[in-house]
Amino acid sequence: xxxxxxxxxxxxxxxxxxxxxxxxxxxxxxxxxxxxxxxxxxxxxxxxxxxxxxxxxxxxxxxxxxxxxxxxxxxxxxxxxxxxxxxxxxxxxxxxxxxxxxxxxxxxxxxxxxxxxxxxxxxxxxxxxxxxxxxxxxxxxxxxxxxxxxxxxxxxxxxxxxxxxxxxxxxxxxxxxxxxxxxxxxxxxxxxxxxxxxxxxxxxxxxxxxxxxxxxxxxxxxxxxxxxxxxxxxxxxxxxxxxxxxxxxxxxxxxxxxxxxxxxxxxxxxxxxxxxxxxxxxxxxxxxxxxxxxxxxxxxxxxxxxxxxxxxxxxxxxxxxxxxxxxxxxxxxxxx
Length: 336
Prior knowledge:
Layout: E1 2-6, E2 16-20, E3 30-40, H1 42-46, E4 62-69, E5 81-84, E6 97-101, E7 105-107, H2 114-118, H3 121-134, H4 142-145, E8 149-153, H5 158-169, E9 173-177, H6 181-190, E10 194-196, H7 202-208, E11 214-219, H8 227-233, E12 234-242, H9 254-258, E13 262-265, H10 270-273, H11 281-294, E14 302-306, H12 311-322, E15 329-333
Parallel strand pairs: 8-9, 8-11, 9-10, 11-12, 12-13, 14-15
Antiparallel strand pairs: 1-2, 3-4, 3-6, 3-15, 4-5, 5-7
């Protein structure tokens, strides 16, 4: 089967190669998916092999068709059209066929093609788990949430683009950050009520909107530069969810302690990495996301595309992601 393998941690030409790999066989609860389209995420370049590591196939978003099922599979059968984000501990989606545990997979939206479907899994799972699992927001009671405010830092990114929509469906007042006109327009089109610039004074901008604090902060961007600002903006007994690492020593005391603020991390691969008892929750989340898309309640966030899936285009995708200026999701489809 065709695949793209990184041989070093770089997006420079020659860092990834087109190769032929053996086609795997499904056993146990694994299904074998023939991949039609993939989407790209920052985690792709973050897990490229270090100098001391062997070559690696990366990628963590895909849509395709089930071509084989393991003996213990109960959720899918051959021919099902599916989408998923996969497992960071296993070989990735930059290959023509991939094994994935059925508990991490769902049937993709019937209203979308493979490329648009591939743009959804990782960001939808991350946004859903961040808002509803980690922050404890109840998506079933939008009337109870209508006076609550959430600040989404990094609103135009892949995760932020889904989080804006989910937060609005849950009834929240959404303040999103964006720093350019095109990214601001993107956030507004997705339903954000207010836009502020994350390169400027966040607490001041919030006050100018008439908000002293927000009940929730979902930070899908860097942490270090806004740490003190988050302490000022979060409401007493409010909640903050983070998805990125930090470069400096963070002070979890001060205003965070005085406000009894909840601070938590969201890592979409936790369930698969530790084989948690609730792994199948990701199957159910993706089922719900597909239903929301097909009902017109959620918009897929694919915003640029390339084809075919090959080393040249994968490297270009990595360079675009590393620039930090992408809006929505970048998708690749088709094989040469």
